Amino acid sequence: MSARVRLTMAQAVVRFLSQQRSSRDGREQPFFGGVFGIFGHGNVAGIGEALHAQRETLRYYLARNEQAMVHTAAAYAKMHNRLRTLACTSSIGPGATNMITGAAGATINRLPVLLLPGDIFAGRGPAPVLQQLESSQSQDVSVNDCFRPVSRYWDRINRPEQIVTALPEAMRVLTSPAETGAVTLALPQDVQAEAYEYPAALFEPRIWTVARQRADLDRLRDAAALIRASDRPMIVAGGGVLYSEATDALRKFVDATGIAVAETQAGKGSLPDPHPLSLGGVGATGTSAANLLARDADLIIVIGSRLSDFTTASKTAFQHEHVRFIAINVAEIDAGKHAALPLVGDARVVLEELLSLVDGYHVDARYTERVASSLRVWRAEVERVCDLREPHATGAESTPVKQAQVIGVLQEMLAPTDVIVCAAGSLPGDLHKLWRARDPRGYHLEYGYSCMGYEIAGGLGVKMAAPDRGVYVLVGDGSYLMMAQEIVTAVQERIAITIVLLDNAGFSSIGGLSESVGSGGFGTRYRARNPQTGELDGDRLPVDLAANAESLGAKVWRANTISAFRDALAAAAGYAGVGVIAVPVDRESRVAGYESWWDVPVAEVSDNADVRRAREAYEQARRKEREFL
Ligand SMILES: Cc1ncc(C[n+]2csc(CCOP(=O)(O)OP(=O)(O)O)c2C)c(N)n1
Ligand SMILES: [Mg+2]
User: Fold this and answer.
1) What's the pLDDT at 394?
2) At 499, is the secondary structure helix, strand, or coil?
C-alpha cells in the first residue's frame, strides 16, 4: 500500500491547498496566496486548528465580514489574471451565508475563489445545532445549499475521505479559464475534526497548467473570410483579453488591420491609451466614438466578453442591418452569443492565428478618418466634462465639486501603473466613459455584479496582489456605508491604499434613474424623515463618514475644492497606511449618456404623468432592441 498520513480532514485540506501551483507560459506560482477567514464554532476547532498548525506554509488573514473577504479574494484573483486566488473559511450559518453575495459576484465575473463554509454535523447527533436551518422534509439540507446556484463547483464533505476526489475537482474548476468561478466545499464541523489515513500523494506539490486553447481551424478560416469581406469592422474587447494577457497580440492585430477597439468595463485597458484606434468604453456607458462606430459596424469581433446588457446597450448598440459577430472566447456559452461565429479558445493564441489568416487586409482610409474624427470630438467632450477650473462661489455656499472633476484630477495625477478600483453607483459609468486606462491592470471595475461594498474589500485584494502599485479605491457614500469595515483589516495588515470617498448624500446613480422613469428620485436621498411631509425629504443627516473612517484607523483628508483634492492626493500618495480623502460632490452633476440606452422597464400604467411620459419614451426606445439569430 502507498504511504499514508493520518490527519484530520481540515488538516488535510489546508496541507493540500498549500501545495497547489498554477502555471501558464512556463511561469509557475503558488495558487493560493493565503486564507481569509472569520472563526466561529463551525470552523474554529477544525479548519482553525489546521491553519494555526500550518501558519508557516499558508498565511491566515482575519477579515471583518465574510462577504467582504470573498470580494477581496475575487479582486486578488482578477489582479492575478486568475492564476492565483485566496481561500475563505467561515463558520456555519450566518458566517457561511454572508459569503453568498461574494460567491455570486465571483462566479458572474468568472473569477476563481475557494469557499470553505462550515456546515452542520454530518453525524447529526446533537442536531439541531446553533444556527441550523431545519427542514421537515429532509435532514440533508443546510443553509449551504444556497451556494449551489452561485458556485461553479459545489460539494459537501460528509466523510473525510471524500476530499481525496473533491479537492482535485475543485482545483480543476478553479484553474479552468472556461469554468472558473466560486468553488464551494461545505465542511461539516464534526468531519473537519475527524482523522483519516490519507494517501501521502495527495499532498505532493501539484502544478495546474492553464492551457491556451486553440480554436478550430475551419472556423478560423471562416472568420478570416468574414473580416476580409467587411467594410466597417469593430472589436469589442472584454475581460478575457486581459486575463489571457493578450494586449500585445491585440495591438499587433489592430495595427495590422486598422480595426478600431471599444472596451467593456472588464476589458478596459485591453488597448492601453494612447492609441489611435482606442475608442474607449462601449455600450450603455460608452463613448460617443465607440457607440457611433458600433451602430454602423457590419462586423463585430467580440473578444473575451459576456456581452452583457451594458455592453450591448440592451441589444440596441449594433444597428447595421446585416451585422455579423465573431466571438473569441474560452467559454462556449459566450462564444455563441448573438449567433456569433464561435472561436472557442484563448484570446491571445486565437488573435495570433487569426492575424496570419487576414494578412494584407486593412480597413480603408475613410474608416480610419472616421475613427480619428470621432475621437477628436470625444476628447473635446471629455475636456469639457472634466473641466478642472475651480468652481465659482455662488452666494454663501461654494459650488460643490463635480464627480467628473475628481476623475479629471485623478487622471492627471495618478501614475499609469496605479490601479483604480470601483464597483457600483454613478462612478462606474463615469469612469467607463471618461477614464483613459494606460496600463492593462490599471482599471479594476467589478461591473459583472456591480456589488455595492466591493470597493474597499476589493482594493485590499488588489494591493495584496500588486503591492508595488498605487491602489486608489473610488467609492460612493452609499457603497461606503454598506461595507467600510475592511479598512480595519487593511490597517491590521499594514496595507497601504487610498480611498477616495465621493459623498453626495445618497444615490446619485439610482436617483437619476428614478427621475428618468418618472419617480422623481424617490427614496434615494439620505435625508431625515420630515415630520411635516412624512417623507424622506427633511434635514441633511448628521453623518460624518470621514470621522467614521478616521475612527477605523485611516488617515483622513477632507477636500471641498479641487485644489484641496489635489493637495490631499499628493499627501496620500506618500502615506504608508490607509488614507481616505473625503470629497463632497454634487449629486445632480451627472455625466450624460452618449448615443446609448439601457433597458429598465417603466410602469405600464400609472397615475403619475411623468411615469406615463417615461413609459412612452421607453416603448419608443425598446423598438431598437434586436434579436440576433
Ligand atoms: C449591494 C447592492 N445593493 C443595491 C444596489 C443597487 N444600486 C446601484 S448603485 C446604488 C447607489 C449607490 O450609491 P453611492 O455608492 O452613494 O453612489 P452614487 O450613486 O451616489 O454615485 C444602488 C443602491 C447595488 N448595486 N448593490
Ligand atoms: Mg452617493
Assistant:
1) 45
2) strand
Tell me which residue has cell 461553479.
152
Q: Which residue, 599, 452, 451, is CA-closest to 516?
A: 599
With a cut of 60, say whether residue 392 has pLDDT above it.
Answer: no
Q: Report the C-alpha gap between 461 and 70 in whole angstroms.
A: 10
Q: Residues 309-323: pLDDT tens digits?
A: 999 999 999 999 999
Residues framing ligand 1 (Cβ under 6 A): 424-427, 450-453, 476-479, 504, 507-510
DSSP lists the bridge partners of residue 421 as 444, 473
For the purposes of burial, counting CB atoms within 10 Å of the CB of 290, is it exposed (0-12), middle (13-18) or buried (19 or more)? buried
Ligand 1 atom nearest the C-alpha of 101 is 1
Q: CA-CA distance, 102 to 423, in Å (whole number)?
A: 13
Q: Average pLDDT for residues 25-49, to the nearest whole number?
A: 98
Amino acid in position 614: A
CA–CA distance, 312 with 290 (Å, rounded to integer):
12
Contact 133, 98 (CB under 8 A): no
Asked if residue 121 lies in contact with residue 159, where contact means CB atoms within 8 angstroms, the answer is: no
Q: How many Cα atoms within 13 Å fall on the side-chain side of residue 255?
A: 9
Report the side by side order of strands in the sheet with 260-263: 278-281, 260-263, 233-237, 299-303, 324-329, 341-344
Given ligand 1 and candidates 65, 454, 509, 525, which is best to mutate, with the most ligand atoms within 8 Å of its CB?
Answer: 509
What does the block give as the cell for 481?
Answer: 456605508
pTM of the model: 0.97
Question: Do 75 and 462 form a contact (C-beta atoms < 8 A)?
Answer: yes
| Ligand 1 pocket mutation, candidates 473, 482, 507, criterion most atoms within 8 A of CB | 507
Query: Are the beta carbons of 58 and 32 closer than 8 angstroms?
Result: yes
Q: What is the pLDDT of residue 389?
A: 77
Report the 10 Å Cβ neighbour count for 165. 10
Average pLDDT, the chain: 96
Kindly give the distance from the C-alpha atom of residue 507 to the centroid of ligand 1, in angstroms, as a whole number.
6
Report the candidate in 468, 564, 436, 450 with the shortest Cα–Cα distance to residue 509. Answer: 450
pLDDT of residue 391: 65
Q: With CA atoms as reference, report the closest residue to 64 among 551, 546, 483.
A: 483
**Kind plus residue range of the DSSP H or E element containing 410:** helix 403-413
| Residue appearing with cell numbers 417623507 | 535
